[in-house]
Write a structure and sequence with these properties.
DhaL_dom_sf; kinase; 10 helices; EC 2.7.1.121; globular; Dihydroxyacetone_Kinase
């Protein structure tokens, strides 16, 4: 289990480095539709989280995840602290038995549930949920239904998240500061979805390094997306075009 914990710490340190490198980019994105503080807040929070994780004597995955979550809650301002950090504290409990494919799926599902509940956001609201939802659904399906290797499943999740980030650009924001802009929010990439993608990319890089395997070249698009003769709306009112891409 200590090896699992060391891997989680390594992932946190990589995320902190990536967010710091992307600080100006995230600030620029947030300047267009928010308070221009997402880059600075996230960089400060993840730097503190990496220090806190590094200093832990007990590096079991659950402890690392909860420590990182609590640190983000205290160091990241605005709504991002509770969303990223508070949700991580709850999801960390799923890693009590170490990091396996099964506990990783449980962790991802719990994290998404808490983020969705805390932010009261759904896909299409132009938030981090637009990147996180397709990533989690894709990861779960890849592991539990398609029996993909964990690294491939994670690579597919990252691809799905990247599509989710692009999905936010042409939409009108319905949550957060960006929603105050109304139609002026259209055409802007969501900073929270973008930082979520960066985090997932670093988790994938860490996993590939630990497994000493190359990152697979994957495509998360589902082959079962409805054809152009349908509008993608199922009998239950859900949009299967969105669900199909997210659940691949």
């Amino acid at each position: 289990m200590s090896g699992n914990g060391d891997a989680v710490v390594a992932a946190v340190e990589r995320v902190a480095e990536r967010i710091e490198a992307e600080r100006d980019h995230l600030t620029q994105l947030d300047s267009a539709i928010g308070d221009a503080d997402h880059g600075g807040n996230m960089a400060r929070g993840w730097a503190a989280a990496a220090d806190a994780a590094h200093d832990l004597d007990d590096r079991d995955p659950e402890t690392v995840a909860k420590t990182v979550g609590k640190t983000l809650m205290s160091e990241v301002g605005g709504a991002s602290g509770p969303l990223f950090g508070g949700s991580l504290v709850f999801a960390g409990a799923e890693l009590e038995g170490g990091v396996t494919a099964e506990t990783a799926v449980a962790f991802a599902e719990t994290y998404l549930e808490k983020v969705t509940d805390r932010g009261d956001a759904r896909v299409g609201d132009v938030t981090m949920v637009d990147a996180l939802t397709p990533a989690v659904h894709t990861f779960k399906k890849s592991i539990e239904t398609d029996d993909r290797p964990p690294l491939e499943a994670l690579a597919r999740a990252v691809d799905a998240a990247e599509r989710g980030v692009a999905f936010t650009v042409p939409l009108r924001a319905r949550k957060g500061r960006a929603s105050y802009l109304g139609w002026r929010s259209v055409g802007h990439q969501d900073p929270g979805a973008t930082s979520t993608l960066f985090i997932l990319e670093e988790l994938l890089e860490t996993a590939a390094d630990r497994l000493d395997e190359p990152i697979p070249d994957v495509d998360a698009t589902s082959p079962t997306i409805p054809d152009e003769e349908t509008d993608g709306t199922d009998a239950d009112g859900t949009n299967s075009k969105v669900d199909a891409e997210g659940d691949s």
